[in-house]
Amino acid sequence: MLGGMAEDLLSLVVADPMIGHGQACIRGTRVPVSVVLDCLADGMSDGEILAEYPALSAPGIRAAAVYGARLAREDLVPLRTAP
After folding, report:
1. What is the pLDDT of residue 1?
2. Cβ–Cβ < 8 Å for 36, 49
3. What is the percent of the chain with per-residue pLDDT over 90, rounded to a whole number?
4. What's the pLDDT at 6?
5. Number of C-alpha atoms within 13 angstroms, CB side, residue 25?
6. Residue 74 predicted with pLDDT over 80
7. Domains of the chain, each with CATH number or no CATH
8. Is 58 a residue whose pLDDT tops 90?
9. What 3-state DSSP class applies to 14?
10. For 28-68, what is the HEC assignment?
């Protein structure tokens, strides 16, 4: 089970059908979670990711990692609709 901080981070992951065809993105950006996970998988540091995607924040990067971890455990991750 996830702790409170991980649940808070998951609130940064949203899906909006008007942005990126409804892909999971980091709230307030058009950056898909999959892009952030690809960056992490490529060994990029938080600083490098933030330089490449200035709309992101460090918590947004962590949120993508939490979301990816949940998917790897095959948990259903309901997404909030972006406001």
Report:
1. 45
2. yes
3. 64
4. 79
5. 21
6. no
7. 4-73 (1.10.10.10)
8. yes
9. strand
10. CCCCEHHHHHHHHHCCCCHHHHHHHCCCCCHHHHHHHHHHH
